[in-house]
Design goal:
With about 270 residues, the protein is mainly α. It contains 14 helices and no strands. The longest helix is centred in the middle third of the chain and has 26 residues. The protein is globular and about 60 Å long.
Length: about 270
């Protein structure tokens, strides 16, 4: 673990114990066994630490998601159950961080933190969409946005309840419970009409926005060229699925892997 990661771990624990606003840079330095001046060599402000915490926390989570997704011994349902359980476990272990993510706390820290949180929420939602399609197949595609919205709402409200009620909560039972509710929900939609129908052109534009964001977040010239080629392929009237899949396979092995579920969801792959 690098020195910066050690400081992030210390700050996460302090924010969880005392809250963001009640924790000082001096305390973070002391618990990191650093002089306050030395801490500023790693982070210029408490806000920068929070940005790094969010990025670090969710990078770790999405890397674990990717590891589970690559396990060919598991069915799509087993993968999603493990990933959902992991998301809930991460909440249980880092309530303060997730509380800032879920509520309006991030906006109170800074606009940069708020913008990062919105991107993370978007990635989580896209992961829901792709996972639902993987589990239930084409029958769910017309309703996939509705199902993802309802699932996201259920997860969020249960975690909010667990956070603010301050009572013992059976976290280990939540993921299987939600999966059973999801099964019933999907079965009930067969003869209904979706509220948010799938819009292929809108999804294509969303995929292009994601690629643009990826280009903005890297300085690697080779990666930028690859992303520009992917962008050109997506813009075609009929993107070649095999070519797009090859790009996504490469990205899945790179530092950009956290964007792959969002791209897959937008491109209906």
């Amino acid at each position: 673990m690098s020195r910066k990661e050690q400081i992030i771990e210390v700050a996460m624990k302090l924010f969880a114990e005392k809250g963001y606003h009640a924790t000082s840079m001096q305390e973070i330095a002391e618990h990191s066994h650093l002089a306050k001046g030395s801490l500023y060599n790693y982070f210029k402000s408490k806000e920068e630490i929070v940005l790094s915490i969010f990025q670090y926390h969710y990078d770790q989570l999405f890397q674990q998601f990717a590891h589970i997704a690559s396990d060919r011994s598991l069915t799509a349902r087993e993968k999603f159950l493990k990933q959902l359980s992991l998301q809930i476990e991460a909440f249980e272990q880092h309530k303060e961080i997730v509380q800032m993510h879920m509520g309006d706390h991030a906006q109170k820290v800074s606009e940069d933190v708020h913008a990062l949180v919105l991107r993370i929420r978007s990635h989580l939602f896209d992961w829901y969409v792709q996972s639902l399609i993987n589990m239930y197949g084409e029958r769910i595609r017309p309703f996939v946005l509705d199902c993802a919205i309802m699932l996201n709402g259920m997860v969020k409200e249960y975690l909010f309840f667990a956070l603010f009620e301050q009572k013992p909560f059976p976290f280990q039972r939540l993921a299987p419970f939600l999966m059973r509710r999801l099964d019933a929900l999907v079965d009930s939609l067969e003869h209904d009409v979706p509220l948010f129908a799938h819009d292929a052109q809108a999804e294509k534009e969303r995929a292009l926005m994601i690629v643009t964001q990826m280009i903005e977040e890297t300085t690697d010239r080779v990666m930028i060229e690859l992303l520009e080629q992917l962008e050109a392929e997506i813009k075609k009237d009929e993107p070649r699925k095999a070519i797009v899949e090859a790009f996504l396979f490469y990205l899945q092995q790179s530092d950009m892997r956290q964007f792959v579920p969002a791209l897959r969801a937008a491109l209906a792959l």
